[in-house]
Amino acid sequence: MASLRIHICFLLYFAIFLSLSSCYSLPENHVALFIFGDSLFDAGNNNYINTTVNYQANFWPYGETFFKYPTGRFSDGRLLPDFIAEYAGLPLIPPYLQPGNNNFVDGVNFASAGAGALVETYQGFVINLNTQVSYFKDVEKLLRQELGDAEAKRLLGRALYIISIGSNDYGVRITQNSSVLQSYSKEEYVAMVIGNLTVAIKEIHMKGGRKFGFLGLGPLGCTPGMKVLVSGSTGSCVDKATTLAHLHNKALSIALQKLENRLEGFKFANHDLYTSVSERMNNPSKYGFKVGNMACCGSGPYRGQSSCGGKRQIKEYQLCEKASEYLFFDSGHPTERANRQIAELIWRGTPNMTRPYNLKALFNL
Ligand SMILES: *[C@@H]1O[C@H](CO)[C@@H](O)[C@H](O)[C@H]1NC(C)=O
Ligand SMILES: *[C@@H]1O[C@H](CO)[C@@H](O)[C@H](O)[C@H]1NC(C)=O
Ligand SMILES: *[C@@H]1O[C@H](CO)[C@@H](O)[C@H](O)[C@H]1NC(C)=O
Ligand SMILES: *[C@@H]1O[C@H](CO)[C@@H](O)[C@H](O)[C@H]1NC(C)=O
How far lies 6's CA from each of 10, 17, 19, 199, in Å? Predict the structure, then answer.
């Protein structure tokens, strides 16, 4: 009896599902946004995994300016993908793991703070890039069931895919000393990171993705966090990290050019985050900031200790009065104001900042 009832329920559910999906049709020029990567993009996926507060930002004062409550974003307000969604005429794109989130027609956010392209990077505490891509494949299947093969293919081919990855792979190499990965040379290590990113791109392309946006690495060696963690109170930039960031950015643009020649229809926008962030660190007032080298929230020199919110190892922290006067909100993450400026450069920046296309050009294709 019980099994019969389940059966009937299933049929009813299925009938409703079919009738809904058959009358559902997307606007001709609908552009979805699929988001992959690390804390620069994570809108709250890490709220729903078994991790530690080191990889979470779901407590005050994160979120204080825009949302007025902590969402899991590592900033006082919105992140780069939130602004990109706005420019694309989309609502905020929710985290994939947010319960009840099962409409993927506008895209979805797979990013996870702490994630890297290498499986070993903060393994067990984050959703690595490979796993993010496997979630995307699940979403692709659901979209095909819901919309049919032709409509799903169209949606995936028109969609934007934005990826921020690598900072954590290098951060781990510089600040931790136990991993087997330490035995690789700098060049070999960069090749592994780029190699894994290339695999991810090819898999998304195989499922129909065509228009990609990438963030190069920022000035990793000069963030308040890296300076304090490695140089202590002298606060000088960390050359090892700077070198890795340059090597990565060079290897990334070479890899993307190769992919453009090899993958049918593949087009990309690659933002030079190293330049956009360095410019603002070195000339804060030119961009409307008062402080470029020190975090708004944290403790120690440059407030570079990752103690914002007082929930991690160190319980004491300072919080600035106006986050919008700062480039960095915490030891390694931009304020909402900085994110808005950088998002503008990704969306409509000239080729010296975002090349060969900007994201708006890809959106309009
Ligand atoms: C979560 O992680 C902790 C520490 O790594 C572990 O002890 C615990 O069993 C995990 N919980 C679940 C539900 O996996
Ligand atoms: C990526 O790199 C790791 C090493 O960290 C490796 O084990 C893994 O198989 C690679 N490939 C993908 C697709 O992640
Ligand atoms: C890592 O360990 C090696 C030897 O065990 C040591 O020489 C090196 O300075 C350490 N590096 C860091 C970043 O702690
Ligand atoms: C990039 O080019 C624009 C316009 O051509 C210019 O205003 C801007 O200063 C340049 N930025 C950098 C960092 O060179």
Answer: 6, 16, 20, 41
Q: Which of 233, 228, 235 is nearest to 305 (CA)?
A: 228
Q: Which of 352, 353, 354 to mutate to test the pocket of ligand 4 (most atoms within 8 A of CB)?
A: 352
Q: Which among 38, 42, 76, 330 is annotated as catalytic?
A: 330
Q: Is 272 part of the annotated catalytic residue set?
A: no
333 labelled catalytic: yes
pLDDT in tens, the chain (365 residues): 344 444 444 444 444 444 444 445 677 789 999 999 999 999 999 999 999 999 999 999 999 999 999 999 999 999 999 999 999 999 999 999 999 988 999 999 999 999 999 999 999 999 999 999 999 999 999 999 999 999 999 999 999 999 999 999 999 998 887 666 778 999 999 999 999 999 999 999 999 999 999 999 999 999 999 998 777 767 789 999 999 999 999 999 999 999 999 999 999 999 999 999 999 999 999 999 999 999 999 999 999 999 999 999 999 999 999 999 999 999 999 999 999 999 999 999 999 999 999 999 999 99
Establish whether residue 118 lines the binding site of ligand 2, counting it when its CB lies within 6 angstroms of any ligand atom: yes
Would you say 39 and 333 are in contact if contact means Cβ atoms under 8 Å apart? yes
Count helices and strands in the chain by DSSP H and E runs: 11, 10
Q: 40 to each of 70, 145, 206, how far by Cα in Å?
A: 15, 32, 26
Instruction: Respond yes or no: is residue 330 known to be catalytic.
Output: yes
Is residue 172 assigned to a domain?
Answer: yes
Domain coverage including residue 78: 28-220+236-274+335-364
Task: Output the domain CATH number for residue 196.
Answer: 3.40.50
The tokens 């660190």 sit on which residue? 281
Q: Which ligand is nearest to the CA of 178?
A: 3
Structural domain count, the chain: 1
Residues in the chain: 365
SS3 316: coil
Question: Is residue 298 a part of any domain in this protein?
Answer: no
Cα 309 to Cα 319: distance, rounded to the nearest angstrom: 9
